[in-house]
Amino acid sequence: MVQATHAPHATYEDANLIMQLYDLRREEKLRKARDWFLREFRVDSVKEFFEKYPTGSEQNAFYRMVVGYWDMAASFLVQGIVHEELFFGSSGELLAVWERTKALVEDFRVWAKNPCISLNIEKAAARHIAWLNQRAPGAYEAMQEWMRGYSSKA
Asked: Which of 134, 153, 133 has its CA nearest to residue 143?
């Protein structure tokens, strides 16, 4: 696993990259996709995914936008481009995306014959969970519980 090679303290460049990632999340369509994803997305298999969100549907595009965004952002962490502490301190949504997709990832990898699908999210989430458990034991489990109940009806 690639570890961040940054100095112990975040740099201006690290902060600038975090702000750029934040600005991307504020884009109107991605914001709408993120809201849908957290409130509505519940799928446990590729078959169920395509039944509920067929190719060409707005929800299929929303899924790809959210997961694609977070896999890209996670790649910066995995490759050591962004400061780990700064990333984890400002990117809690990555764990929410992982919670919504982790049961589906292996099925998608087999279906697409691509073991790299969401690999950056998976690696970043594992590091983020370890980071969080070290600093705030129980916080990850509390977030998981909150995610189980979070929906448009909540």
From this structure: 133
- Residue by residue, DSSP assigns 92-128 as THHHHHHHHHHHHHHHHHHHHT-TTTTHHHHHHHHHH
Count of beta carbons in the 10 Å neighbourhood of residue 114: 11
Instruction: Please give the span between the terminal C-alpha atoms of the chain, in angstroms, as a whole number.
Output: 38
Residue 147: per-residue pLDDT: 85
> pLDDT, tens digit, for every residue of 1-51?
444 445 578 888 888 899 999 999 999 999 999 999 999 999 999 999 999
CA distance 41 to 34: 10
Residue 14 contacts residue 86 (beta carbons within 8 Å)? yes
Q: One-letter amino acid identity for 97?
A: V
Q: What is the pTM of this model?
A: 0.87
Q: What does the alpha-carbon distance between residue 154 and residue 145 come to, in Å, rounded to a whole number?
A: 13
**87/32 Cα distance (integer angstroms):** 23
Q: Which residues contact 98 (CB under 8 A, 6 or more apart)?
A: 121, 122, 125
- Dist CA 117 CA 148 (whole Å): 24
CA 130 to chain centre: 15
